[in-house]
Amino acid sequence: MEFQVPSLNLLIVLPVLIVTGWGMLLMLAEFFIPEEKKSWAPWLTMLGLVLALIQTIGLWGYNGGTFTPKGGAPMVVVDNFATFLNIIFLLTGILTVLISIHYLRRTGLDRPEYYMLLLFSVSGMMLMGMANDLILVFLALELLSIPLYILSGFAWPRPDSEESAMKYFLLGAFSSSIFVFGIALTYGSTGTTSLPLVLERISDAGMLGLVATAMLIVGFAFKVAAAPFHMWTPDVYEGAPTTVTAFMSVGAKVGGFAAMLRVFVAALPQLGEAWVPAVAGVATLTLIVGNVVAIVQPNIKRMLAYSSIAHAGYIMIAVAASVNSPDGVSAALFYMLAYLFTNLGAFAVVIALEHKQGEGVMLDDYKGLGKRRPWLALAMAYFMLSLTGVPPTGGFSGKFYVFRAAIEADLLWLAIVGVITSVISGYYYLRVVYLMYMYDGEGEVVANRALVWTVGLTALATLVLGLLPGPWFDMARDAALQTVQMVAGG
Amino acid sequence: MPMNAFGLAPLLLVFPLIGVLFNGLVGRRFIVANRNTGEKWSGWFASVMALSAFMVSVLLFLSLRSHEYHAEVVHLFDWLAIPSAGFRVPWAFQIDTLSVTMMLVVTGVGSLIHIYAIGYMHGDPNFSRFFAYLNLFLFFMLILVSGNNYLMLFVGWEGVGLCSFLLIGFWFDKVNEKGEPMNANAARKAFVANRVGDFAMILAMALTFWSFGSLEFEPVFSHALEMFESGEMVHFGLFSASLGSVLTAVTTLFLIGATGKSAQIPLYVWLPDAMAGPTPVSALIHAATMVTSGIYLIVRSNVLFEIVRASGATIFGIVSSPDLVAYIGAATALLAGLIAFTQFDIKKVLAYSTVSQLGFMIAAAGMGAYVAAMFHLITHAFFKALLFLGSGSVIHGMEHGHHHIHAHNHGKEVHGTPQGDTHHEEDNFDPQDMRTMGGLRYRMKTTFIVYMIGALALAGIVPLAGFWSKDEILAHGSEHNLIVYILLTIAAVCTAFYMGRQLKMVFFGEPRHEAAAHAEESPAVMTVPLMILATLAVLGGGLNLPFLSQGIAETYHEHPGGVFLGLEGWLEHSIAAFELTEEGVVHLPETPKVFSPGVAGISTILAVGALVLAFYVVYANKPKTAEEPDPLQSTPIWWFSVLPLNTLYMNYIVPGFNRLAQWLADKVDWAFWHDFFHDRIIRDTFVGFAHFAANILDLKGVDGMVNGAGSLAKRLANWIRQTQTGYARNYALSIFLGTVVLLAYFIFMAN
Amino acid sequence: MDNQLLITYLPIAVLLGIALFLAVLLPVLSLSLGPKRPTFRKLSPYESGMTPIGEAQRRLPVKFYRIAVLFILFDVDIILLVPWAVSFRRLGLYGLAAMLVFMFIFILGDAWVWKKGVLEWD
Predict the structure, then answer these.
(1) Which one of A277, A281, A437 has the shortest CB-CB distance to B37?
(2) B88: distance to nearest CA of chain A, Å?
(3) Is C74 contained in some domain?
(4) Of A285-294, A332-341, A426-435, B667-676, which gets the smallest average pLDDT?
(5) How do the domains of chain A map onto residue ranges?
(6) How does pLDDT run across A290-326, given as a tens digit for each residue?
(7) Domain that holds residue C69
(8) Is C84 inside a domain boundary?
(9) pTM of the model
(10) Mapped to the 3 state alphabet, what secondary structure does B166-207 carry?
(11) What is the per-residue pLDDT across B196-227, written as a single tens digit (0 to 9) for each?
């Protein structure tokens, strides 16, 4: 057997290379930067992320693949779908750095590894959207997860942080093993792990293909925190440093969905008849569990954890709709964009209130915020409304598109479940608003400039997505069409 | 990229509806929890919803501009459809320049009034209910102006009537000296008077559908035009009638509908009484928006009116229906202008003034000057809202002053000094009576200035908004209908006179009551909207400036619009008659495009003269005290107050109705009907149901459902929460079980 | 074909089912039917009377785990290197370049580990 050198086009993986390389560079640089200049680390990180972002935006509209073995399909592809998601990941990274700077200093967690791990995790997420081969999906998944395991435990020697890291790691390994099993079964039934080839052969794979699909669902559902694979979420979110929680709640979730959309829409649409009801069922359970249990949480980080579970449910609706509706994928993409800004904004406010590690994270600490910090409270109220899905917010637009896609895909019942659970969600989101404005209270609020900027920018972005969703949704549609076309072409 | 926000049109209705739901369902809880913050939430939430609707209107405006003013119909769904009868009424939005103009006025002025009301209603026990009604009103008003068919228009028409009823009777528990619930009565009067108009509307719609087979604007108008061009008859089964006569009937019925909603002769009687409602309501509903829906209806149906005019059809050979519209408008303008002389209630003066100005608009629409009518509608919305809100500010200030002296006297009484006379007077103190005011210009500077601007704009003084719009109507009249022109000119003189009288009595001279001497300026939340409206009242004329000379007109001939006649250039695109004029099918009476110095000069001189007359002659030094009679009462124009149809309504219609009711009641077995049927069956059932609704449904059912849903969710949450043990092994088990279930499902699927 | 494949496994599934059933049934039966008369002695871990002292699992210093983790890394390194060395000629320049990149990253990590003082025992 003659070995063929795979085709290489490093330009299209340049953003990932920049992020990974930058992480390694920071690793080395740490030894050469004098102690008093260590505070440069976040800004250097940001520089790398911004460079990658510029490069990524430059790739908008570009379609191509690389690492293509002879006669096979590329391992890594870049299309608008991947580019759109990469923009989300890089924005998540940038915003996380912004909210981390001061938080890490005041909680004594300011170690340079933090930013390195962040970069590695971002690169993993980016590969999730670009992976065109199940092996690469798995590698990306691990690259995304392992830094997160460490980051959750970053607040050692606080026991709950260590506990959270341990739980996340154990359960992550458990679900990863199921996921790998799924990949193995896919390979066993089709003889390939390349998504376009899987697409061609999966209809002949029979039972094994279906079993593999089930296991792949488990792997993704764990990563995006969908019920009943969500149990780790509240504990991990509560124990991890809040900035990490913020990063995880957006990045890891969107990363999971990125690969899930790619795999299920681009490779497994023929099994849609089987997996759509399963995903819809998982979505329903997720929506109910997330929204209902959030009601009784006294800790805002736990509440937001359940809220993030619930939002995974909404995106799952879009995933379930993506086979039979042309707008399913774009609705999911738009939803994730809106969710990125809203959720990171809300977490930025949480961080402003967490004056010491683990203090100021109870709902009662929000009493009277409307009087103490009117602008911050207003922003928080707006984020809560957006998470509930009240117009004119990005959250509303996102839900609107998701439900519309669901109705188009003949999943009216699922849209109804979504609407009802949205109403339930008002109960706990608006309670925050209620506490902020209807009570008096006191407590320290630490809002430095970077944080205020983050809150302002995310609020503005949420507003823009709420008032003028059209152009952004058109962008998401451009991004989604590529995926569907690939299906048709493949 | 051309902007396309037409899809946002449904949001116009969504926003106010959210406001209604918020204030209707939970607003009260906020206020109960914390009066001050709760009020802010309730009021600002409603205001933000109104502002959001305004933003949507602006986006629609911009979209229309970038789409070269092409009307757009945003179809939501078919509302009523009976395919076998060819009956189909969609729920669709007509987005064209006319409806967007109305939307902008309704939401723009509406938003300002919402904000103002936060200050004005401060401390009212039913604060959130008020805002729920206000938002509900906006909701229906927007349905009225945005619908693309007569049925939607009618839904909005009825809805705003309902809101008007609710808001006039907002303080329904208020009674006058005789113990009559006057506010509730006023509300009922408004409702009943409007029913007459609504009945005409229903007939008109039935006739329209019967003749043209549709209720949507576009098909009706184009169908009517086709028939007009081909000279076809309208067939009703066995009968047939000429198009002109059918449309005469339709338009006359529309006119009757408009006389109800827009308070014209003979149905205007309800509007002055409607001032019993809170002042923001008077400003929003009974001056700026709802009462103009009659004008909107006529302008919207311009094609029908113009066909009637062109066909030469008349009502019994006397007068054609558009002319009738013009005469009724002009007569109302004059009559109401005269009545306003005799009023002492600051708001009643404004109410009659509103009736009068609506007459101007109706007359303009009747003469075919649709743009002028809309122009006056817009400027009137600005300055009349301003005047009403200003009067609200005055009333607010007077009440404050009254509270002030009351507290003062109370303090004195404690010290043992009796205050006989003043005390007696206070009990009958009416903060709206202009005779008790005077000299307020020192106490309430901001209010004074903006009120002055509003009054001068209304009086038609150059270069304020009212001058331009009124002048356009008069100029049109001078060319097309001399009778209407003369009537309107006299009405304009009256306007200037009663506004001069009001300004003098309220703001100038010496305080005639202690309350006036201690009046206080209103808070910023009230004065800022006033200032915005004042700015609009000053600049509003710029919307549709006529060409100043023939020369400029010729220069701009190729490009109408721009600085001059902007509104005309804009509305042209939805007033279909314009296009038809170009094709030469029907002839639209053309409004002079060039400023006519003669007409403007006459009206300005007369207006200034009337102001001077009021200021320096009739009310120069009088009245000096609150008890002194109005100088006008010695002159023989007292009969103005006798003449109006209010008397007719009270003397003939009401007793006539009562007699009819009595006659009917006597004809049936009183004992059976009243005692048994009414008391036993209807009343007891009703009372029983009311009890059921109040005690069981509301307390146990609705409240129980709200609380029950909450506690159910909580119980469910606590139950699910039990699974969250904190042990990683249990979590792994959950993952495992989930996997097993999924696998089982997929294996089941495979077989 | 798949169905046949499954059917051949049917006896095993039946056996599994029976085993599972019995495994659940017997403890449940003994729990519900058997008499229970717990006394202090019976409840103590060893009826002989010895009370256990200390934890059953000994804690090891984390240093050992660190070394173990490093060992695994080198292990993986070797697992990758050996097959590459075997087919070195066939993979050619491309293989060499890829391996160099890999080695570079690997050595970078080692340098970091070293610099962080992981290799120091005390």
Answers:
(1) A437
(2) 25
(3) yes
(4) B667-676
(5) 10-489
(6) 998 998 888 999 999 999 999 999 999 999 998 888 8
(7) 62-115
(8) yes
(9) 0.57
(10) HHHCCCCCCCCCCCCCHHHHHHHHHHHHHHHHHHHHHHHHHH
(11) 788 889 889 888 888 888 888 888 888 888 88
For residues B503 and B131, give the distance between their C-alpha atoms in angstroms, rounded to a whole number: 31
* CB atoms B749 and A210 under 8 Å: yes
How far apart, in whole angstroms, are the C-alpha atoms of residue A463 and residue A344?
Answer: 14
Q: Establish if C57 belongs to a structural domain.
A: no
Task: Please give the Cα distance from A281 to A325 (Å, whole number).
Answer: 18
How distant is the alpha carbon of residue B341 from its chain centre? 24
Q: Which residue has the tokens 């149990």?
A: A231
Element (H, E) at A414: helix A412-438
Q: Pick the residue with more confidence: B686 or A340?
A: A340
pLDDT tens, residue by residue, A344-369:
999 999 999 988 877 888 988 898 88
3-class DSSP state of A77 = strand
* Amino acid at position A74, single letter: P
Q: Does C90 contact A at CB distance below 8 Å?
A: yes
- Number of domains making up chain C: 2
Here the ipTM equals 0.88
E strand or H helix at B602: helix B597-612
> Any CB–CB contact under 8 A between A438 and chain B?
yes
Q: Does A173 touch chain B (CB under 8 A)?
A: no
Q: Is C67 on the interface with A (CB under 8 A)?
A: no
Q: Rounded CA gap, A474 and A326, in Å?
A: 13
Close Cβ partners of B458 (under 8 Å, ≥ 6 residues apart): B353, B357, B383, B384, B387, B466, B495, B499
The answer on C105 and C71 residing in a single domain is: yes
Write the DSSP symbol of residue A5: P
Domain ranges of chain B: 1-76+89-148, 175-313+320-405+430-541+594-623, 670-750
Give the DSSP letter string of B477-531. Answer: HHHH-HHHHHHHHHHHHHHHHHHHHHHHHHHSS--SSHHHHT--PPPHHHHHHHH
Pick from A284-288, B472-476, B712-716 the range whose average pLDDT is largest: A284-288
**Can you tell me whether residue B147 is helix, strand or coil?**
strand
Instruction: Write b or e for each residue in B727-740: b if 16 or more Cβ atoms lie within 10 A of its Cβ, otherwise e.
Output: ebeebbebbbebbe
Q: State the Cα–Cα distance between residues C113 and A196, nearest whole angstrom.
A: 40
The first and second tokens of residue B73, run together, are: 């119909």
Chain A residue at shortest CA distance from C97? A5
* Three-class secondary structure of residue B325 per DSSP: helix
What is the distance, to the nearest Å, from the Cα of residue B514 to the centroid of all Cα atoms in its chain? 35
In this structure, of A32-46, A129-143, B612-626, B637-651, the range with the lowest mean pLDDT score is: B637-651
Give chain A's length: 490
Contact (CB, 8 A) for B510 and B97: no
- Indicate whether C92 belongs to any domain: yes
- Averaged pLDDT for residues B228-233: 80
Helix residue ranges per DSSP H, B35-96? 35-66
Residue B240 pairs in a beta bridge with B235
Q: Residue A453 is which amino acid?
A: W
Average pLDDT, integer, range B269-290: 85
